[in-house]
Write a structure and sequence with these properties.
The complex is a heterodimer of chains A (about 260) and B (about 325).
Chain A lengths: L4 H26 L9 H10 L1 H34 L2 H16 L2 H12 L3 H25 L3 H9 L4 H39 L2 H11 L3 H30 L4 H4 L2
Chain B lengths: L1 H18 L7 E4 L8 H9 L1 H4 L5 E4 L5 H6 L5 E4 L1 H9 L4 E8 L4 E6 L7 H7 L1 E4 L5 H9 L5 E4 L6 H5 L3 E6 L3 H7 L4 E5 L9 E7 H6 L1 H20 L2 H10 L5 H15 L2 H6 L6 H13 L16 H4 L5
Parallel strand pairs in B: 1-2, 1-3, 6-7, 6-8
Antiparallel strand pairs in B: 3-10, 4-10, 5-8, 5-9
Helix pairs in contact in B: 2-11, 2-12, 5-15
The chains are: A mainly alpha (about 260), B alpha/beta (about 325).
Chain lengths: ~260, ~325
């Protein structure tokens, strides 16, 4: 086992255990209704007893989040490359990219159903819409911050546009892209769940149904699953970041 | 270890906020926008019936408001919910009580395109197609128990009739006073099957309060029910004035829709039963049946005592001032 793992997992785990224990005690002492705030033990019980509902829902949500995030990564980087191609293109189109950041997903979610139909396509679209902007913005920042001296070097050696993009600009922007993806990962989970509120399937429908049935414990259990999904994605991006950057970039080589 | 302490502190604060009884004017939480389903309440406020009974209520809430939780926590004195929500809440240990039932017949139904020439819910479920309903609705569980829904593709309802207008094979949940009127005005030819026809018929737009308030201020609760009865009587006789008040608060809905909705709901509110027992009255048989049905559906572990789910004007009469 990796000896570096214990010091990493220990502190957050301790935080979790202590917080849960305090919340449990506070809720039991104050005798607050489980409808208003369920005790952590009730949430764990609901997660266990409803696992036949929660786990398939988690799998369905995870699938849509991954597809939405993959689309954000691919199209976001492409869009940023296009925007960085000239000042004029950037000026003409970048303000419209910001549209993706401010679009109130809850408001347009019902339209997604009309455009894409019920089911996972609308959910993937919702995950994409809320997660693409951080990828575009960070990638663009990376592409535009390339060291001018290196640009001069590439020009001196007569490198073409493709070579400059693939060997200089994208590698330079890689840490930026990964930062964008870290932000996008959490947003994609939120987007997918909102998409499921209208498109159907996954944890979103479990949350709605549990609220309607006044099963607050199940609502929190579903939220717990969504958080776990967000954490897993964050860890995945971090892993990709380590693998991609540890040989040459200061942000990952110190560990 | 500062973080867990901070989190615990935050938790305690949340609890304190939840338990605080919220000073100031007593309020009633609605569960939807101002629409004819609340006509009698707005009429009682407009005409001064509420004030006459010593009740100066602030109207709060709206779509998505956690009404049962707000009433149980004492944040509002009264709220509007469905009868099934009352039974569910009582099963979860939350002491809320129904004091006035607006609808004797549940106004919820399933809307289909009349062009499909379907005669009943059973025929719809046999024919198949898409069914747009909010996840977790008890009556959908009831359908699943009574009918075979294998041919239906069940999707969430997003409070818009646009998908219905676009898809001739789509069926959706409705309030008979709302969506069918909207769909018709947008050119569709809708047909509605009431869920009550399937044998599941909980009272709807039920006014609730907490059991504690009922014990501590029975006269006040009785006065509230009496004001509602007066308000609904006036609204049924002439909804125009209250509709104008609600129309100003809910400008998306035009005056004609208000008029049509008030017209459509009248037979669901005033029945032979209410002519005998008064508007808003409830019967023990109906509550007993509902509790048994919800237990059959597995939504409650052990059906709560139906006697304690409601306290209508007749029960409250003894405590009238």
């Amino acid at each position: 086992m990796n000896p570096g793992l214990a010091p990493r997992i220990g502190p957050p785990l301790a935080t979790f255990v202590v917080t849960a224990a305090l919340a449990e005690a506070a809720i039991r002492v104050s005798d607050v209704s489980p409808l208003l705030l369920p005790a952590p033990s009730a949430v764990v019980r609901a997660a266990w007893s409803q696992s036949a509902v929660l786990l398939p829902a988690l799998a369905a949500t995870a699938r849509c989040v991954l597809l939405g995030l993959a689309a954000s990564a691919a199209l976001g980087v492409l869009a940023a490359v296009a925007l960085s191609s000239s000042r004029w293109v950037e000026r003409a189109f970048y303000p419209y990219a910001i549209f993706f950041q401010i679009v109130p997903i809850v408001a347009i979610a019902p339209l997604l159903v009309i455009w894409f139909g019920y089911g996972s396509r609308a959910v993937v679209a919702a995950a994409f819409i809320v997660s693409v902007f951080p990828v575009i913005a960070n990638t663009l920042a990376g592409l535009l911050s390339v060291d001018p001296a290196l640009r001069d070097l590439f020009r001196l050696y007569g490198a073409g546009a493709w070579a400059r993009l693939l060997k200089l600009e994208l590698p330079w922007a890689l840490p930026f892209i990964l930062t964008g993806l870290r932000i996008a990962a959490g947003l994609a989970v939120i987007g997918a769940i909102v998409g499921e509120f209208v498109g159907g399937g996954g944890l979103g429908v479990v949350v709605l149904g549990a609220m309607r049935e006044q099963r607050t414990d199940l609502v929190f259990a579903a939220i717990l699953h969504a958080s776990a999904l967000g954490l897993a994605l964050f860890a995945l991006v971090n892993l990709a970041s380590r693998l991609a950057l540890r040989r040459w970039h200061a942000s990952e080589s110190s560990a | 270890m500062r973080r867990p302490l901070l989190a615990a502190l935050l938790g305690v604060l949340v609890l304190a906020a939840c338990r605080g009884s919220g000073g100031g004017k007593p309020a009633i939480a609605l569960n939807w926008k101002p629409e004819p389903e609340f006509g009698g309440l707005y009429e009682a406020k407009r005409s001064g019936d509420l004030a006459k009974h010593g009740l100066d209520l602030e109207l709060t809430g709206g779509p998505g408001a956690p009404v049962v939780q707000m009433v149980a926590a004492g944040q509002v004195a009264f709220g509007i919910a469905a009868a099934d929500e009352v039974v569910l809440a009582r099963d979860r240990g939350v002491d809320v009580v129904a004091v006035f039932a607006t609808y004797q017949t549940n106004p919820q139904g399933i809307m289909v395109h009349a062009s499909r020439k379907l005669g009943s819910l059973a025929e719809l479920f046999a024919a198949g197609g898409t069914l747009a309903v909010e996840p977790g609705l008890p009556y959908v569980k009831w359908f699943q128990k009574r009918y075979d829904l294998a041919r239906m593709k069940i999707v969430p309802y997003g409070y818009s009739v646009a998908p219905f207008l676009l898809d001739p094979q789509l069926a959706q949940q409705v309030f008979v006073t709302a969506e069918p009127i909207a769909a018709r005005r947008q050119g569709a030819d809708p047909q509605v099957f009431l869920i009550a026809d399937s044998g599941f018929d909980p009272y709807a737009a039920v006014y609730i309060t907490s059991g504690r308030r009922l014990r501590e201020e029975p006269a006040r609760v009785a006065a509230f029910a009496a004001a509602l009865r007066d308000g609904w009587r006036s609204y049924l006789d002439d909804p125009a004035a209250a509709n104008a008040v609600m129309g100003a608060l809910n400008p998306e809905m035009d005056a004609e829709t208000f008029r049509l909705a008030a017209e459509a709901q009248r037979p669901l509110i005033e029945t032979d039963f209410t002519r005998q027992h008064g508007l808003g009255a409830m019967s023990l048989e109906r509550w007993t049946e509902l509790a048994a049905q919800l237990q059959e559906l597995g939504l409650v572990d052990h059906a709560p005592d139906p006697q304690r789910c409601f306290a209508d004007s007749q029960k409250l009469a003894g405590s009238r001032p």
